Task: structure prediction
Amino acid sequence: MSDDPSDLLARGWDGAAEGYDRYFVPRFAPWVATAASALHARTLPPGPILVPCCGTFPELPAIAATHPDREIVGIDLSPGMLARARRRVAAHPRARLVRGDAVDLASRWPGEAAAVVSVFGLQQLPDPAAAIAGWASALRPGGVLSVVSWPDETETDGPFALLSAVRAEAQPDGADGSARHLRLAERAASAGALVERDEPVSHPIDHPDAESFWTAMVGGGPLHKLVLSHGEAFMAELREQFLSRAPSGPWRHRPTAHWIVARAT
Ligand SMILES: C[S@@+](CC[C@H](N)C(=O)[O-])C[C@H]1O[C@@H](n2cnc3c(N)ncnc32)[C@H](O)[C@@H]1O
Result:
């Protein structure tokens, strides 16, 4: 078994795919709709619509609804996520999946894509700002980039904030491999794209209770990777810290994501 970070990341998502699709996909649906809305009523140049970090591919139905004749390509590293994505692809003859690194779009589709749409994948890449410049370079002139990602801080109160706090205490070096200090608009512009939107997007999310949130994060979310890398004892301690400081009963929060829309010139 390899220690390669991208291999660990893929294995983490493999085991989380079913739980992610069940728990998080419906809760994240408003952000998927936000990202896809950038393609509504747009005449795109020729070429495929690329969806890097597609996971189980919840972006597909909304994109296919507005561009039914377009090739739509979901790209992801995790075979488990792609296996679930296949269920959505089966309903769309023009859609297909590629197992690969989302960082490499521009070498595979240099200046050839009609659009790049991505939700909640960019912040997981080793260098998100470089990745977004690469995604912009994959576009044909007139092509559209629409990317929703989580910034460093998504909320000051709520389960995401509490989870960040207990993780920071347990892992003071913060070596989670995720990205920080996103200067996305600047980098997209430096790759020749005209930035149309660079803004926060908040939506409410409801959890039955803190325990359900925790279970979903471990079984179907990014914490699954932490189980593989740090083991059960570490996770049990983290869980105890989290639950001891969480409120009881239903938990609603309103995290803020970041949305960038840009057009290639
Ligand atoms: C939180 S999920 C988001 C999935 C989907 N876009 C959604 O909105 O539900 C993040 C996905 O990014 C994928 N991912 C992370 N790094 C990647 C990389 N370098 N190349 C391709 N996929 C990657 C993971 O495998 C995972 O499926």
Remarks:
- The longest strand covers residues 139-149.
- The longest helix spans residues 5-37.
